[in-house]
Specification:
- By secondary structure, the chain is an alpha+beta fold.
- It folds into three domains: about 40-170, Glutaredoxin; about 175-280 and about 295-435 and about 460-530, Rossmann fold, CATH 3.40.50; about 535-570 and about 585-625.
- The protein is built from 19 helices and 24 strands.
- It has a seven-stranded mixed beta sheet with strand order 8-7-9-10-22-19-17, with helices on both faces.
- A hairpin with a 4-residue loop joins strand 5 (about 135-145) and strand 6.
- It is globular and about 120 Å long.
- The model has no long low-confidence stretch (mean pLDDT about 80).
Length: about 650
């Protein structure tokens, strides 16, 4: 009885001591936690800490989440509870690290409540679940001076970027002036603002509406003043902080000179060129349906880039078997469609070191080409990347994935897809340029008898050029589709959602060029969804080993089926069967047997990959199920052995 009482008392004391220790430690270290996740997903980065240190006024974060509605909703909605808990814990860290400058409020906007009215008024997106329930999941950040920024909805595909989104709106609250981006493009990236008044009038006369701005431009407009540039004079306005040249085609000398001199003055230039841009579609002509056959969807700016130290090979397409995206049904690797993982970025460059999942389509290849500027690769293929030279325009407009795989071999070194040029650069206009002088003539002051009788010559005006700069900065990307809606965003139940790392790449570039690196260190840290690299490698290796054999078997099936069809046309009815020669009947049976055997071989070839993947799956399951019991059993055995030898030792001592 006493033994049982002592045991109970000991357990109570152990529990009290444990709880007291936890409380004391928590209080003593200020609520510090150990983050064991890969990428430290629950630890604020140095960029966020730097932004919080710069806060000069309190900020209130109101997190709206329909927790009760989510618990009542279907499984697709209850999934958001885990997402909410992550966001809540992360925002709690903001409040703790800020030293009281950031205050967090958790709000459940129930239907017909004051909180719901406030959420709608502040721009939080509403998703009706039923007549009595709606779903909200957004954030409102406000200051005491009345400024506010909103995350209307935490997109499911942006879970890796939550910290960046929150830090960005906090930074925006204290930012006084938006920086300005100037865009020069042959594509309607800015919608109507990118089109001439004449083209707009023609479209209205035809009853057509111009396309809206690209989604990436609309996103940039939230943080920057984005302006379409038309060069009436050969110079970039002095208030342009960044210049983006997107798909330059047939630029006149005045525009090229303006871009050149902008860099010579120390401006920050981003160039997006492409050997084949899918966003560059030919204009439809009802009178000539074949007018678009000769349309060229490529662009280049090598007249400037070559002089600065880089060249974009505009006739070659970058391909990579290890990074190829699978498309079509059944899915097969489309080599020009690249999804580049974190092994394809420059780990030593802050702009891209943490990016993963950049998508590029029909990208070109960039090479070093003399010059005195420093050439830094940013994005590349894997070491087995190579280039593909299309045979004709049809190969680009109607590509055959299987044929491209046959035409391309694995390379031996990475192909550069994006690079940075910095430092010493020279102008391609060392002597300046002459342009037409549109200034009005001075009034005549000479008598009519003394005026010249010859026709006046066209007036020109000479403009001197800045010949060189030691602080040039040019970002070159050999793909335009990288910033199109098709590759940057996916459509989901909740609307357009950012996908991949294309948008973070562009935002990183702007932040880097502006000299502000706080947000760069946040934007791409950590990944919730990580690929099974071992399984991916098994699939690629299996494809390499079996693809030729599969092609041969498919060709055999096709030939046998064709022969069977030809033999089938030689017989018609049951009455004619007796008239058929025995050799024809035997030939049909033989062809059918070949098709059956070939199909069996095809299934066996395709099952090799599945069996390897399933073998790994069973190993992991066995490890997960058996590891914990095995460890506990091992500990128990060790303890039993220790006690056994101790008992034996003491027994020997007593003897």
């Amino acid at each position: 009885m006493k033994t049982a009482f002592r045991l109970i008392l000991a357990l109570i004391f152990v529990g009290v001591i444990s709880i007291s220790t936890v409380l004391l430690v928590r209080k003593g270290v200020g609520g510090a936690k150990i983050d064991l996740t890969d990428g430290n997903l629950y630890t604020l980065s140095e960029g966020t800490r730097s932004i919080l240190k710069k806060l000069n006024e309190p900020v209130t974060l109101k997190l709206y989440y329909s927790r009760v509605a989510a618990m009542k909703g279907p499984d697709q909605i209850r999934f958001w509870n885990n997402y909410y808990l992550y966001v809540r814990d992360l925002l709690t860290e903001y409040s703790r690290i800020s030293g009281g400058k950031v205050k967090l409020e958790l709000i459940d906007p129930r239907t017909y409540s004051v909180e719901e009215e406030e959420a709608i008024r502040n721009g939080i997106r509403r998703f009706p679940l039923s007549d009595d329930e709606s779903f909200y999941f957004g954030l409102l950040a406000t200051t005491e001076l009345g400024k506010d920024e909103t995350i209307a909805f935490f997109e499911p595909n942006r879970q890796e970027l939550v910290e960046y989104d929150v830090s960005k709106i906090i930074s925006s609250l204290v930012q006084r002036k938006k920086r300005t981006i100037g865009i020069v493009s042959s594509l309607p990236v800015m919608g109507p603002a990118n089109m001439s008044p004449y083209m707009l009038q023609m479209m209205r006369m035809q009853g057509r509406q111009p396309d809206p701005p690209w989604a990436i431009v609309r996103q940039l407009q939230m943080d920057y003043d984005v302006r379409n540039l038309r060069f009436e004079t050969p110079e970039v306005p002095s208030d342009i902080d960044f210049l983006m040249v997107i798909h330059p085609k047939n630029l006149d000398q005045k525009t090229v000179f303006a871009i050149d001199q902008y860099v010579m003055k120390g401006g920050k230039l981003m160039v997006f060129v492409d050997p084949h841009c899918l966003a560059d579609r030919p204009q439809r002509d009802p009178r000539n349906p074949y007018a678009g056959m000769n349309h060229k969807a490529g662009s280049q700016l090598n007249n400037l880039l070559v002089n600065w130290g880089a060249v974009v090979y505009t006739k070659k397409i970058a391909v990579d078997r290890a990074s190829a995206t699978k498309t079509g049904r059944p899915p097969q690797a489309f080599l020009p469609y690249l999804t580049l993982n974190d092994q394809c970025v420059n780990k030593n460059h802050r702009m891209v070191s943490e990016l993963n999942g950049i998508r590029m389509l029909f990208a070109g290849a960039i090479g070093r080409h003399g010059g005195t500027a420093e050439f830094t690769p940013l994005i590349s293929t894997t070491d087995i990347g190579n280039t593909w030279l299309p045979a004709d325009a049809m190969s680009l407009n109607m590509p055959n994935p299987q044929k491209i795989q046959e035409e391309v071999t694995d390379g031996t070194e990475a192909v550069t897809l994006a690079c940075m040029l910095t430092g010493k650069m020279n102008s391609i206009f060392p002597n300046g340029i002459d342009i037409p002088d549109d200034s009005p003539d001075e009034p005549d002051t000479q008598p009519a008898s003394t005026q010249p009788t010859t026709q006046p010559k066209d007036k020109t005006k000479h403009i001197d050029a800045i010949k060189s700069t030691d602080k040039g900065t040019v970002l070159v990307v050999a793909d335009v589709d990288i910033i199109t809606d098709m590759l940057c965003y996916d459509r989901s139940f909740f609307g357009m959602a950012q996908s991949g790392a294309n948008v973070p790449f562009l935002l990183n570039a702007l932040e880097f060029l502006s000299g502000s690196e706080d947000l760069i260190s946040i934007r791409s840290r950590g990944r919730f969804l990580r690929p099974f690299t071992v399984i991916d490698e098994i699939e690629r290796e299996s494809d390499r080993k079996t693809q030729k054999r599969i092609d041969a078997v498919n060709a055999k099936i096709k030939a046998s089926q064709k022969r069977l069809d030809e033999l089938g046309r030689q017989g018609a009815t049951e009455q004619d069967v007796a008239l058929l020669e025995a050799t024809v009947i035997e030939e049909r049976r033989k062809a059918q047997a070949e098709i059956t055997a070939a199909n069996r071989e095809l299934r066996d070839l395709k099952s090799v990959r599945r069996e390897k993947v399933e073998a790994i799956e069973w190993k992991l399951r066995a490890l997960n199920v058996g590891a914990a019991p095995a460890i506990l059993l091992l500990i128990a055995i060790v303890l039993w052995l220790v006690r056994y030898f101790q008992a034996k030792y003491y027994a020997a001592q007593r003897a």
